[in-house]
Every structure is written in structure tokens, then in C-alpha cells.
Amino acid sequence: MATITRRSVDVVIVGGGWAGSIMAKELTEAGQRVVMLERGGERSTAADGAYPGSLDELEGNYRFKIFQKLQKTTVTIRNNISQTALPYRQLAAFLPGEGVGGAGLHWSGVHLRIAPDDLTLRSTVISKYGKSFIPEGMNLQDYGVTYAELEPFFDKAEKVFGTSGEAYTVNGKVVGNGNVFAPDRSDHFPLPPLKDVTGAHLFRKAAAEAGYHPYAIPAANASRQYTNPYGAQMGPCNFCGYCSGYACYMYSKASPNVNILPVLRRNKLFEIRPNSTVLHVTLDSTKTRATGVTYLDEKGNEVIQSAELVILAAFQFNNVHLMLVSGIGKPYDPVAGTGVVGRNFVYQNISTTTAWLDPSVWTSQFIGTGGGGVAFDDFNSENFDHGPLGFIGGSPVWVNQAGVKAIAAAKAGGPPGTPRWGSAWKSGMIDTYKHAVRMDAHGSNMAYRDVFLDLDPTWKDAFGRPLLRMTFDWKDNDIRMNRYVVGKIAAVTKAMGARQTHLGMKEFGQPFDTRFYQTTHLGGGAVMGSDPATSALNRYLQCWDVSNVFVIGSNAFPQGTGYNPTGMVAALAYWSAHHIRTTYLKNPGPLVPA
Amino acid sequence: MPPSLLSRRNLLQTLAGATALTACARLAEAAPPESAYRPVFFTTDEWRFLHAACDRLIPHDASGPGAIELGVPEFIDRQMETPYAYGALWYMQGPHVTGPANLGYQLPYTPRDIYRRGIAGARALALQMHNAEFASLDAATRDAFLTELETGTHQFGDLPASTFFGHLLGNTQEGAFADPIHGGNKGLGGWAMTGFPGARADFMDWVDQYGREYPLGSVSISGETI
Fold first, then answer.
1. Cβ–Cβ under 8 Å, residues A57 and B179
2. A390 in any annotated domain
3. Which residues, numbered 11 to 70 in chain B, qualify as contacts with chain A under a Cβ-Cβ cut-off of 8 Å?
4. Which domain holds residue A220?
5. What digits encode the pLDDT tens for the residues A298-314?
6. CB of B224 within 8 Å of any CB in chain A?
7. CA-CA distance, A487 to A482, in Å (whole number)?
8. What is the ipTM of this complex?
């Protein structure tokens, strides 16, 4: 195939998801000529979310219609440094997206701000409990940015996403029945909270009875029709239950495809090129400046696209992979404890509890809205005293019913101990589907010295590049946190009047299992911070070593939080874009001296 | 045996090669409707095995219809012609190295390969253990044999029997509960027994009818409803 050189542009963006779309919108507003390269195909609600054909659970959730197909590339995974990592050959534990919209098209819509203490977790833990409270081998870090600095950008993102929710305080004044642990806000949510589904309704009552503080989960699923500040329109969510894995046919779930790209596509400064796989960022001879990217177009031609500014906005681990294969930043070495790219790879620590209610109560699990539900944060972040508990981190607990469909119900089966097939399975499964409520402890996962990303020595992608290698396992600190918080759910299911409860919790000594879905909330690997020795990016998500490369995504999280990442990713994108617009473009160079 | 059942049995034998004979005899009240479907991927012997296995994984019982009535074998056969069955959703590049189970599937076999090798292996194992084709065993013996595949340590070459069983079970569940556009869930029977409304997909006025049973039947993508 030929090598083609395309006309130089101001900005090239790798990835067509939330981060890339936000950056493209912001930078075209600043007059920059932007090209967005997306490895997957074009996607739209009209084509991918058409009613009724798109409401196909088999295609959506089991043939991964809008998720990544692993045929061309994947990662390898091992539990520890002494093992041989093996390819993640079938989608299971986590489900990255592919195509225009990225994970922002298949996500559910939970849209949370970060807990302020999580941004300064190292400082907060040391000041409250002392430095010796941090376990040996845990790389606890601060983000290098405060909630007060990010607040305007959380606010902006909520207005773009059309987020439904209820505030607790606005400008320091109690205004509503929102999360009492939530940080102060400069404004209300743009839309009122969604209705509670049955499970969430019962959970709200029972959690309050147990002495906790339930609130409506902020959801980027529109509770009413809405026009965002860009002029993009959303329809009201009808609780259809086809959120996660689907291109919402109601235009109710926020996505780059609905909330940003329709406006960008009309802008002459913006061009999107789907089916364009970026192979690497090209650097000049000093290795401190990017000249653009090299990518494969849909015909297999190698294309050289030069640009003044390169934004990596692919999925978390793809950003890290691109940095490693491009030679941006020093790769992390877990033995020496040096280098930063691949350091502080984190996941999320989730377990599901099930309560079986009286057979006269129908829980209608098929009704759902992806981001909606009811949570309590009494055991999240630093909302409780960790001193006597001896672990770091926490979990919100919630009923977040995105719509459980029939195949998922069949595979989930009945109560523990029920066979996986046959008549006992059938009756147990049907009873569970009709009368049970599921709730999650959706917890943080801390960063550790021996949990990291690097390049695999053996397996390659279809383009000849080494696969990214994940070295990951659950650690005692996080298992203890999970078990503590899940234990607190027992009071809720009791108050619900459950006839049976299964408290789902992590077990000590059980390795991370790639075969079962847990969550797609991966983080870290190219983290933000104040110290180039422990972070790959400065607090504006700019590479310390190559100042015209910014890396936007959950890769920037120094450790996991109990919350879903998209709200934080969107706020960080707006934060970074603001500083590019107001400072960097006027005088390109490092925004923070290294 | 009533003549009507006998004739139905004969019909089924003619149509599908002695399909699920014992199941048919057992389900005197609700025998599976005959199917005109002819498998594309599965051979006659494989097709018999598939029926006899699916019939036990989701049996017809008081909870509702079984896999045969729901058209699960047709679903699986049709799936075998999709990109999924050719391994297009999986990373298939070598080297293929065995490792701990929790690191996931590592064999070079696509779903089509897994069925071909798995059914051959299971049939041979049944002949060895029972001196009979799996499909001709009675229900209790088939259950015990399937449990052996599920939990035992049998290997069909380098394919663990439990890996084959896992695929068979997963596809059987998919076939019983997926939209009927894919060939299974005949008559929306899978959805009727679970109360899943399918593509109805609008619960605006039912969200806060707390604890009540949803009153409307299921609807499929093609508009079939119950």
C-alpha cells in the first residue's frame, strides 16, 4: 500500500469518543483546524439505534455490535510479574468500544463528579491517619488539581450531557434532597432527577431506614426533552432498558454522537476520518516534540498526518499503548520503581448483592435507565473514618438498573447453589428475574507498585505492534474495603424485607478473573500529577516530556475512585482544553516547568 | 401410547432424524412442534446430539417450554454461519499457550471448531461410557453425562469437555431468550416464561407502578406479539 502525506493541520485528535469530541469542540471554537482519527467505523443513532432493529440483546450484548472486535488487537493479562501474560482473546471482564462515539456510545450514563478528597487522597490520608497508614507497595498519589479548580468544568460537562439529578447544595446553600456527601455546586443539574424504578424505590426507603443517606444517581439520561448549550437535542428517557451496549433509540442517553458531533460535523474547521488506525505518534529527532501521527486508512494506506498539537483521546489503555509504542515518556519499570508510562494502572472493585423479595413484589428488572438509580455514599471516599478499619478507599452502594434483559437473566441464573441448567435453574432463574433486586458496591481500587502496563514480549496486533500487557491482581487493602462496605448492605436488604440475600463480595486469594464481566472502568497508566518522577502528565494532562502532546482520559487517574469515570474524564477534558485555549496556544510549550 | 403421539413421533423421525425421541415420549402433553428447518452446519449425527443435549439443558417443565420447542438447535445452527462462529470477534493469533483458567480461553478453535470437536468427543465418550449414542440415552442418563462434561476433567484432544459444555450452554441460553429473528425463542416462549417484554421498550408510564406485574405481553423486532 502507498504512503500518503496529508495536508498539515493545527490539531490531530486520536479517538472519537467523549474526550476527543470535547477537545475537538473546544479547539475548533478557538479557531484551530482539527482532524479526528477514529479506528472504528462511523456510527449514528439513525443507523445504529434504529427502533426496533437495534433492540437486539444478542447482537448488542453478546455479539458486541458497538464494542471492540478483538480480532485485530487486544491486550495480554497476567496476575503477577512472575507469570506469562496471555492474550485476552474473548471480551468478558471489560468491554472497550470501537467506532465513532467510542465508549461514550455504549456507556450507561452514570455521571458523577469526583469526591474532593479523592483528588488529594495521599495528602488527605497522611493528614488524617499518618504516613504509616499507607500500605507497603501502594503508590498513593494526589491528582495535582483541586475540586474548586475543576468545578466549572464539571458544571459545563453536565450542561452539555443534559444530566438529570438533584443537588444537595448550590453555592453553599442546601437546595434539595441530593447527596449530602457531594461537594458544593455552582449550579443545579440541568434536568431534574429521573424517576426511581421499583428496585431503586425500595432501596431508597430501606437505605434511609438503615440510617444511610440515599440520593438519585446523577444520570446523563435526559429526564425531559433538552437542548444543550451547543444546540444538540435530547428526548426524554422512557426507561426502555436498552442503555449499556446500545445507541439509545430515544436520543436520551448522552453520547458524543448526539450531544457534540452533530454540531462539529457542520464546522469547516473539523474533519472526522473513521476507519483510521493510528500506529504511532511521530516525534522529531529531539524526541521532545511531536510532528503528528502515522495511521492506516480504511484502504490500508499508511498516512502521515502532521500537526502542531497531538491529542491522544483513545480509550485509557490505548492511550498508554500509543505512548509506549511512540516512545513518549519513560516506560515504567516496576523493579527499579522508575519511569512513569504504565505506572499506577488501576481497575474498579465491584461486587453485586442480590435480595429476593416476596413473590407478590414484581421488580421488573427489564425497566431501566443506564445512569439512573439510587445510591448512598456513607462508605465512599473519606466520608467515613478509616482509622480503625485499616484500609484506604471506599464504595458507593446503589441500585443502578440499566435494564436486565432475558439472555442476561438466563446467564445470571438463580440464587447461589442453584444448578446452571435444567429445571432447578429454570425456576430459580425465573424467580430471581421476577422478584429480585440487585445492588452494587462500586468501589475504588488503589494503585500498587507491581500493578502496571507495559509492552508484551510475545503477542502482536494485526499491525505488527506488540500488544499492551496488563499485570493486575486484587490486593488485600481493596478486598478488605469491599468486604466492609458489602457487610453494610445487610441492613438494607433486611429493611427491604428480603426473603433471601446474597451479599456478593470479593474473596481473599481469588485472582482477578478475565472470564467474567466486572466493569470497563479501567484507569491510570499515564497519570496526572505534580511530580514528573511519579506522573506521565502534568496537571493539565500535558506530557511532561513532549509538550505538544496532551493525553485525555481515565489514564490520568493516579488511583481508582468509587465513581464511574466518565464525569471526571469529561471535566478533565474541559479543564485541559481551557488551559490549551487560554495559555498554550498563545505560547506553545510546557504549561508547568518540569 | 396414544396413536396421535405415535404418529407425531414418526413425523419427527422423518423430519429430523429421530429427534429427541425420549423427550418426545416424555412430553406427551406438549410435544415440540415439528420443524421444517434443515441444519446447514451440523451433520445428521451432530444435529441429533445437539437436540438431545439442548433438551436437557432447558427441559420442558412446569416453568415453561424447553429448548427444543423454542428452536434452540436452529438458532445454534444459524449462528454457525455468522462472523462470531468463524472467530471474527476473538483474538485468534498464536502462539496458543495454555495457562491458568482465570486468564481465559487460549485455544486456536473458533466456535465452529469447538462444536465439531466437542460433539465428536462427547459422542465417543458416551459410546465408551454407555455403549450407546448420547442421543439415545434416557433423560436421567443424559443429565448425568452432561454434568460429567460440565464438571469433569475429560479432554477431547486439547479441548476440555468443560469448555465445549460452556459454549453449548451459553448458546442454548442465547437461543432460548434472544429475539426470534435469530431462529430461537419460537413463539416468544422464552420471554413469556420470564416476563421479559422484548422490544416493547417504553416503560414511561410503568416505572413507578411499584411492585406491580407488568401487564403487557412481549413483542419481537418483527412485530410478533403474545
1. yes
2. yes
3. 56-59, 61-64
4. 3-584
5. 999 999 999 999 999 99
6. no
7. 8
8. 0.96
